[in-house]
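User: Just a sanity check before I run the rest of the batch. Below are the structure tokens for the first item. I only need the designed sequence back.
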């Protein structure tokens, strides 16, 4: 499990003005979550939203056959579940922890109350929804037009970018579930990357050895998503503090670790 974070590691929370963060901070719970933890499920009413700090969460679409495919990856730039921002009560799909780490949890009622104030949080989350919709569309195009090797490279890069680490704990079964492909295809693509010295894969752990090499194997979808993420990060950075980052008095109210 990565080192215990503070709220600054989630960019949305860190960008909030001190007054808004001060209303939320007593109700933020810090959770340590393992890979495979299900945070929400399709068509179920959400009772919490999650702001990842070091964990990486994958949004999945589940089929009646039991198969699945990944829709989007959420890390410290975002929040799960964004349907609430648009007035929905149920989640868009299954949200599952892809890479173990920490998240901040907040009750949906508290989020709705804050959104009703029409402040910075509402504006930032609506902008994040736009960025997430872009990722959903890019994923659909990638699944249709690019090879398993390209999809794997893109997915790994998106996950590394959001984890803040060059090592991930992910099984081949989990990767195949995210990509919506057979495990054999993932195995062959991962072996090829390892043979070229780009990654090291052993016992469910993936280490990034050559980022440039991995980027060269990824499709145009990764470059498009990185550009979108950079624009959103720029918007977060341009928010005028008094932000929470300048407000050392407001620590998370209730912290607990769950393993």
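Assistant: Here's the designed sequence for the first item:
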């Amino acid at each position: 499990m990565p080192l215990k974070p503070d709220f600054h590691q989630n960019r949305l929370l860190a960008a909030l003005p001190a007054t808004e963060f001060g209303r939320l901070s007593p109700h933020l719970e810090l959770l340590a979550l393992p890979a495979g933890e299900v945070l929400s499920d399709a068509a179920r009413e959400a009772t919490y939203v999650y702001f990842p700090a070091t964990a990486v969460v994958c949004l999945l679409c589940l089929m009646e056959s039991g198969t699945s495919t990944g829709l989007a990856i959420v890390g410290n730039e975002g929040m799960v579940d964004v349907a609430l921002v648009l007035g929905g009560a149920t989640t868009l799909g299954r949200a599952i922890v892809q890479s173990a780490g920490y998240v901040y949890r907040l009750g949906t009622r508290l989020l709705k109350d804050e959104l009703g104030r029409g402040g910075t949080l509402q504006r930032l989350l609506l902008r994040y929804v736009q960025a997430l919709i872009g990722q959903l569309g890019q994923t659909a195009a990638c699944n249709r037009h690019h090879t398993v090797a390209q999809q794997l490279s893109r997915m790994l890069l998106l996950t590394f970018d959001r984890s803040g680490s060059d090592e991930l704990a992910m099984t081949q079964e989990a990767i195949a579930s995210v990509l919506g492909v057979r495990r054999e295809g993932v195995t062959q693509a991962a072996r090829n990357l390892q043979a070229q010295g780009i990654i090291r894969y052993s016992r469910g752990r993936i280490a990034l050895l050559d980022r440039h090499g991995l980027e060269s194997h990824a499709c145009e979808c990764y470059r498009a998503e990185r550009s979108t993420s950079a624009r959103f990060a720029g918007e977060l950075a341009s928010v005028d503090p008094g932000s929470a980052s300048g407000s050392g008095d407001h620590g998370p109210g209730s912290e607990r670790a769950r393993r």
